[in-house]
Each structure stands twice: as C-alpha cells, then as structure tokens.
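yo, 3-oxoacyl-[acyl-carrier-protein] reductase is done. seq:
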Amino acid sequence: MSAGGILRGKAALITGSTQGIGLGVLKALAAAGCDVSMHGLPTDRPKIERLCADIQSQHGVRVAYSEADLLKPAAIRDMVKQTADSFGRLDILVNNAGIQFVAPVHELPDDKWDAILGVCLTATFHATKAALPHMLQQGWGRVVNTGSMHALVASPFKSAYNAAKHGVAGFTKTVALEVATKGITVNAVCPGYADTDLVRNQIADTARIRGIPVEAVIRDVMLADQPTKQFVQPDDIGALVVHLCGPNSSSITGACISIDGGWTAR
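structure:
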C-alpha cells in the first residue's frame, strides 16, 4: 500500500477507464495517491470489481465505479455528482472515453458518426460542464482530455474520429482560456497508436478495407508515420497525465501535448 503521493487528498474521475489508456491513467493517478472513479460499460462486472479492489488495496486510495452511458447528458451529470458525493470533492477530470469505426466517408453509417461524435466530443463537453463548478468552488482543478494525434493530423477512413478529436483540441483551448485565472488548467494529451484493445481491434478492419495482410497494417499503416516503430504504452500516458495534474504544472494550460513516438514531428 502506497502511503505518499503528490496527489494525496485529490479525487479524480476518468472516463473509459476499465481498460487501455484510461486504465493506465487511472492506475497512475491512484499510484500518486489520488482517489479515483473508474468508468466503463459493465461488460464484465466481476472483473471490474476485482480491478477496483486491487487498486484500492495496492495504493490505499478510495475507488468508485460508474457505468454511465456517455450518450446521455443526464447520466454524465449523475456520474460527476456521484464522484463528488463519494469522495467529498472532485479535483481532476480525465475525458478519455472513445470509440472508433473505420470506413470511407461515403460508406460511414450515420449512427456511427453520431456515436463517435457523441462519445468522443459531446460527452467531453457535458462532463467538463458538470465538473467545473466543483473546481471553481475549490479554486483548483485539472481537466485532461485524451485528444489523440488525430486531434492534430488526419488519417483516411476515420472522418468521424478525426472530426471529433480535432473538436476536442479546440474545446480544450477554449475552456483553458475561460478558466485561466481560476486555478484550473485544461489540456489534451495526444497519443499516437497505443497498445490498447481499441487500436488492435482496428487492425482487421483496416486490413480488409486496404486489402493487405494484418502484419502490413501494423508495419506500413499504423506505425508507418510513428518513427519509434513502437506502440505508445498506456503507463507512459498515465505518467504524463500525473505530471499535468501535479504541483509543477500550473503554467501548462490550453496545450495539446503529443505523446506519439514522433508522429507529428514530421
């Protein structure tokens, strides 16, 4: 059980945190002493309960869980309230949840467009809107949005995702300006292709659309523009988020920070 931590006494809500990048961020915040609220669809409730118990035991922090539907604004508001009620405060919001669908724009189903914009962008607005009053009252807060390098550059066959993540970048900058004198920072972390189920689930679809083998998708498509030729690790993204929430980050705001193996350096 960890006893210290630069975020001891703080409370965080991390959306989409039962796996992948979100789980890496949640574990990093917990290791820094932060009480954490996990969020995700209840696909395997016993597994989620074990995960929460393990994090609580290992780091000596409180762990809550929400299965809010991010396509429903009222559910998002309830999730934020539940976190604040559980911990008596809400200091950190990480808008991480995301979904993906790969298709040419003229074949992209309308419902997929709506869902991707809803989860990746609109839910970020609703969660931030609900969380900010808590932070304003405290005079301190951190909002970190998962932007993806697709908040900065584009890839074909991902029009909805690119549009949503570019929107997240603009939203991040706008809110940062609005709260710049309130002790609150708002930033986006922009990973390249990370070692997550969301990314690996795209491989087969991309292979089908492009008519190439799976191995070629990884080498020549996903990591073609990632100079390190390695997937970004969720733990590394978590460490960056902890820094943005820590005591030496008050002047970092309105930033979209690449953690993409050099992708956007080109």
